[in-house]
Amino acid sequence: MAISQELLEILACPACKAKVELKPDGNALKCVECKRVYPIRDDIPVMLIDEATIEE
Fold first, then answer.
1. Which residues 6+ apart lie within 8 Å of 40 measured at CB?
2. Could you read off the pLDDT of 30-54 as tens digits, one per residue?
3. Cα(first)–Cα(last) distance of the chain, in Å?
4. How many domains does the chain have?
5. Structure letter (DSSP) for residue 49
6. Which SS3 state, helix, strand or coil, does residue 7 take?
7. What CATH number does residue 30 fall under?
8. pLDDT tens, 4-28?
């Protein structure tokens, strides 16, 4: 089961409060501002700053 569009609309980056988008591979959410990538495990976004990685 993929992340629903309704959930994506209400999720925000816990670090900078910006919008997050689903990565093309569907395995993570990426912040549009600070570029943190939050993993999705068992169809649940792990929105913890300590679990995030930073991408260009």
1. 3, 26, 27, 28, 29, 46
2. 999 999 999 999 999 999 999 999 9
3. 28
4. 1
5. G
6. helix
7. 2.20.25.10
8. 899 999 999 999 999 999 999 999 9
Residue with tokens 């495990």: 41
DSSP-assigned letter for residue 4? P
CB distance 10 to 29 below 8 Å: no
Q: Which residues are 53's β-sheet partners?
A: 37
Residue 42 falls in which region: left (phi positive, over 0), alpha (psi -120 to 50) or beta: left
Tell me which residue range forms the domain holding 47. 5-54
- Residue type, position 46, single letter: V
SS3 39: strand
Contact 30, 39 (CB under 8 A): no
pTM of the prediction?
0.91
Angle at 1 between CA 8 and CA 43, to 5 degrees: 65
